[in-house]
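debug: dumping io for the single-chain case to check the tokenizer round-trip. Nothing else runs in this session.
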Amino acid sequence: MPAPAAKIIHTEAVGLAPCYNEAERGLSRAIRSLGRAFAALITQKRRLRRMRERAVTEAMIQAYGRYLDREERSPGTIAKYLRDVRAFASWQQGAPVTPESAKGWKEHLLQAQYAPTTINSMLAALNGLFRYLGWNHYRVRFLKIQRRMFRDPARELNRSEYLQLVKTAKAAHRERIGLLMETICSTGIRVSEVRYITVESARQGRARVLLKGKVREILIPSRLQDKLLAYARRTGRTEGPIFCTCRGRQLTRQQIWAEMKGLCSRAGVSAAKVFPHNLRHRATRSAA
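debug: decoded output
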């Protein structure tokens, strides 16, 4: 006698149940696998976004400049730091910063045969940016430089060479740079402090320098006072900085350096000896 239809359907359903369960489990595994893949994709996207955010941008550099200004760094220091940081950003070509790329920058500077002190100054600028951005794990170690016990005679500017430079400046009607060299050599003032040599300070015989949160007084010898005031009268300056451009702007480090170098060939003095800091050494030796 044939089995009832309901019983046949029930039997078939019971037989297919394991297949349904297996398919459901397979579908669940596929959904979970898809979820993990999607989560990995989101994580990778976030990682790439963070990497793009770690590229040095012009906005970051400008913000770093404002930070240095708040820290009362000198205009010359700020300009150099920003120039060095922009050089690194240009070398990176928009790529994200990594510890490897930061070390690679140091290797690049070594291969370009920069002087060790120059490399360390450029690394100081870059490390300062990383510190400001909170990227401390990207900071690069400085080169170790053995301290010299004696100055290199090839870079020593003696008194006769200094006097020849001043004489050449006067003969070439370049009174400003000649008097500026005399001022640096007589007072030991830094290039970044030249703006403090004013008509008022020349009258008082002392200049008050405020730099990097420190105040110090620089004495101006009486003979130099007379020369500075005479030069101020000839150039029509009655107040403010004595050493300025024709338009009354402050002389930059680069302008002073270039004008000094321009005297070397005429004076017969090696250009390797002529730079502002060497004149400060002359002041120290004269004082000693």
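debug: round-trip ok. The two ends are 131 Å apart (CA to CA).
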